[in-house]
Amino acid sequence: MCVCSGKMLGSCGYAAVSLFPLNGKSDFAHTMLKLGEIDPRTQCNGGDIFLFTTYQTTLRYNVPLEKQQPAFALKVQTVPLTCNNPKGQNSFQISLEISYTGSRPASNMVIADVKMLSGFIPLKPTVKKLERLGHVSRTEVTTNNVLLYLDQVTNQTLSFSFIIQQDIPVKNLQPAIVKVYDYYETDEVAFAEYSSPCSSDDQNV
After folding, report:
1. Every domain of the chain and the residues it spans
2. Any idea where the Alpha-macroglobulin receptor-binding domain is (predicted)?
């Protein structure tokens, strides 16, 4: 055996280990090493050598994540609220109210993404006119969505409304989703849903 940097180095079987001589200064010496497979026939020879082993375990717990409060207050309604046409509502207005409830004084740019009900399309002129509002930088209309780009949102409620109309009759209409989120802080988000006033189960939020 030889001494190197204050350690006695040796080998036991197939595993190289670090050995410390015990004296008044090294009684509490501690070393960490990773052992491979050790031959059960291993023998260690040496004088005044003590072997201490420490086992380290890692415990992992499934800790439920704290449910975050939405960063936006979002309310979506239809006008009319209830069905006033026994043959179905061919067109109606969607009304949105949005305010910021996050940790900052105001949000960054916000996108309101309104998904269309199956068989309905937005009436483009009613969406385009929203760009006249000071806090709407632009709008985008697709077959299935209306996107409103807002400069920012504070705790002051902003209101928007536009009209959608039926393009193809669809039975058993399911609710459609409205998503509002901060463009740069995408974890700041809120969801709501709306239904046709003539749906069998009114699920406006």
Report:
1. 1-60, 72-194
2. 107-194
3-state SS class at 75:
strand
Query: Domain 72-194 sits in which CATH superfamily?
Result: Alpha-macroglobulin, receptor-binding domain (2.60.40.690)
Q: How far is CA 9 from CA 16, 63, 116, in A?
A: 8, 44, 74
The answer to whether residue 32 scores a pLDDT higher than 90 is: no
Does pTM top 0.85 for this prediction? no
Give 149 or 203, the one with higher predicted confidence. 149
The half-sphere exposure of 88 on its side-chain side, counting CA atoms within 13 A, is 15
Please tell me which residue, 114 or 17, carries the higher pLDDT value. Answer: 114
CA distance 162 to 203: 19
Identify the H or E element spanning 125: helix 124-128
Q: Rounded CA gap, 177 and 158, in Å?
A: 19
- CA nearest neighbour of 98 among 128, 68, 129, 77: 77
In the predicted structure, residue 121 carries a pLDDT above the cut 70: yes
* Residue 51 three-state SS: coil
pLDDT of residue 147: 98
